[in-house]
Design brief:
Layout: H1 17-20, H2 27-45, E1 49-52, E2 63-70, E3 77-85, H3 95-99, E4 109-110, H4 111-122
Antiparallel strand pairs: 1-2, 1-4, 2-3
Helix pairs in contact: 2-4
Region (Disordered): 73-94
Length: 135
Amino acid sequence: MATKRVPPTPIAADATIADMVETLDKPVEYVRRVLEKLERCKRAHGDAQVRIGVRGRAEAPNYLVEYVREDKKTQERVTHQDAAYSGSTHRELAPHHIAEARNWSPEEMNITAVSALIGRLRNPRAPSSRFADED
Protein backbone atom coordinates (compact mmCIF):
# COMPACT_ATOMS: atom_id res chain seq x y z
CA MET A 1 0.00 0.00 0.00
CA ALA A 2 1.49 3.33 -1.04
CA THR A 3 1.57 6.02 1.61
CA LYS A 4 0.15 9.34 0.54
CA ARG A 5 0.67 12.69 2.18
CA VAL A 6 -2.70 13.72 3.53
CA PRO A 7 -3.68 16.99 5.15
CA PRO A 8 -4.37 16.78 8.88
CA THR A 9 -7.71 15.08 9.44
CA PRO A 10 -9.52 15.49 6.13
CA ILE A 11 -13.28 15.94 6.39
CA ALA A 12 -15.42 13.47 4.45
CA ALA A 13 -17.33 15.20 1.65
CA ASP A 14 -20.66 14.02 3.09
CA ALA A 15 -19.85 14.37 6.81
CA THR A 16 -22.30 15.59 9.45
CA ILE A 17 -21.52 16.99 12.88
CA ALA A 18 -22.22 13.54 14.33
CA ASP A 19 -19.44 12.13 12.13
CA MET A 20 -17.04 14.80 13.38
CA VAL A 21 -17.34 14.54 17.17
CA GLU A 22 -14.15 12.48 17.47
CA THR A 23 -12.07 15.20 15.79
CA LEU A 24 -13.64 18.32 17.33
CA ASP A 25 -11.49 20.33 19.76
CA LYS A 26 -14.33 20.83 22.26
CA PRO A 27 -17.24 18.67 21.07
CA VAL A 28 -19.81 19.64 23.72
CA GLU A 29 -19.08 23.36 23.40
CA TYR A 30 -19.03 23.22 19.57
CA VAL A 31 -22.35 21.34 19.35
CA ARG A 32 -23.91 23.62 22.01
CA ARG A 33 -22.99 26.73 20.00
CA VAL A 34 -24.32 25.16 16.77
CA LEU A 35 -27.54 24.28 18.58
CA GLU A 36 -27.88 27.93 19.70
CA LYS A 37 -27.74 29.06 16.06
CA LEU A 38 -30.24 26.35 15.06
CA GLU A 39 -32.65 27.43 17.80
CA ARG A 40 -32.41 31.05 16.64
CA CYS A 41 -33.14 30.00 13.05
CA LYS A 42 -36.04 27.80 14.16
CA ARG A 43 -37.58 30.70 16.11
CA ALA A 44 -37.28 32.94 13.06
CA HIS A 45 -38.29 30.48 10.33
CA GLY A 46 -40.01 27.51 12.00
CA ASP A 47 -37.33 25.04 10.93
CA ALA A 48 -33.57 24.56 11.18
CA GLN A 49 -30.89 22.21 9.96
CA VAL A 50 -27.12 22.37 9.67
CA ARG A 51 -24.45 21.26 7.20
CA ILE A 52 -20.77 21.35 7.96
CA GLY A 53 -18.02 22.85 5.90
CA VAL A 54 -15.85 20.17 4.33
CA ARG A 55 -12.89 22.33 3.34
CA GLY A 56 -11.83 23.73 6.70
CA ARG A 57 -10.29 22.43 9.92
CA ALA A 58 -11.80 19.18 11.22
CA GLU A 59 -11.20 20.39 14.79
CA ALA A 60 -13.72 23.23 14.32
CA PRO A 61 -15.46 23.03 10.93
CA ASN A 62 -17.48 25.97 9.68
CA TYR A 63 -21.19 25.29 9.43
CA LEU A 64 -24.19 26.43 7.42
CA VAL A 65 -27.60 26.86 9.05
CA GLU A 66 -30.60 26.41 6.76
CA TYR A 67 -34.34 26.02 6.94
CA VAL A 68 -36.84 24.25 4.71
CA ARG A 69 -40.13 25.78 3.62
CA GLU A 70 -42.83 24.31 1.46
CA ASP A 71 -43.50 26.33 -1.68
CA LYS A 72 -47.23 27.14 -1.56
CA LYS A 73 -47.69 26.86 -5.33
CA THR A 74 -45.66 23.77 -6.12
CA GLN A 75 -45.85 21.99 -2.71
CA GLU A 76 -42.11 21.40 -3.09
CA ARG A 77 -39.84 21.64 -0.09
CA VAL A 78 -37.31 24.40 -0.71
CA THR A 79 -34.15 24.84 1.35
CA HIS A 80 -33.16 28.40 2.25
CA GLN A 81 -29.78 29.36 3.71
CA ASP A 82 -29.99 31.29 6.96
CA ALA A 83 -26.30 31.97 7.66
CA ALA A 84 -22.84 30.40 7.68
CA TYR A 85 -20.66 30.50 10.77
CA SER A 86 -17.01 30.07 11.65
CA GLY A 87 -16.47 26.81 13.49
CA SER A 88 -13.84 28.35 15.75
CA THR A 89 -15.46 31.69 16.65
CA HIS A 90 -19.13 30.93 15.85
CA ARG A 91 -19.33 34.35 14.18
CA GLU A 92 -21.30 34.80 11.00
CA LEU A 93 -19.30 34.44 7.78
CA ALA A 94 -19.66 36.65 4.72
CA PRO A 95 -22.43 35.57 2.31
CA HIS A 96 -19.99 34.55 -0.43
CA HIS A 97 -19.00 31.53 1.70
CA ILE A 98 -22.55 30.20 1.46
CA ALA A 99 -22.71 30.44 -2.33
CA GLU A 100 -19.72 28.13 -2.77
CA ALA A 101 -21.64 24.83 -2.74
CA ARG A 102 -18.53 22.63 -2.69
CA ASN A 103 -17.70 24.13 0.72
CA TRP A 104 -20.64 22.31 2.32
CA SER A 105 -21.51 18.69 2.95
CA PRO A 106 -24.68 17.60 1.12
CA GLU A 107 -25.76 15.83 4.32
CA GLU A 108 -27.58 17.89 6.93
CA MET A 109 -28.64 17.29 10.52
CA ASN A 110 -31.92 18.73 11.74
CA ILE A 111 -32.30 20.47 15.08
CA THR A 112 -33.76 17.32 16.70
CA ALA A 113 -30.75 15.24 15.69
CA VAL A 114 -28.32 17.90 16.97
CA SER A 115 -30.22 18.07 20.29
CA ALA A 116 -29.98 14.28 20.59
CA LEU A 117 -26.26 14.45 19.77
CA ILE A 118 -25.49 16.95 22.52
CA GLY A 119 -27.45 14.78 24.94
CA ARG A 120 -25.24 11.80 24.05
CA LEU A 121 -22.08 13.92 24.35
CA ARG A 122 -23.07 15.21 27.78
CA ASN A 123 -24.14 11.80 29.03
CA PRO A 124 -22.22 9.17 27.06
CA ARG A 125 -23.23 6.33 29.36
CA ALA A 126 -26.96 6.77 28.91
CA PRO A 127 -28.65 3.98 26.95
CA SER A 128 -28.29 4.72 23.26
CA SER A 129 -31.43 5.87 21.50
CA ARG A 130 -29.77 6.03 18.11
CA PHE A 131 -32.97 5.64 16.16
CA ALA A 132 -35.11 8.07 18.14
CA ASP A 133 -34.19 11.04 15.96
CA GLU A 134 -34.77 9.39 12.58
CA ASP A 135 -37.97 9.85 10.63
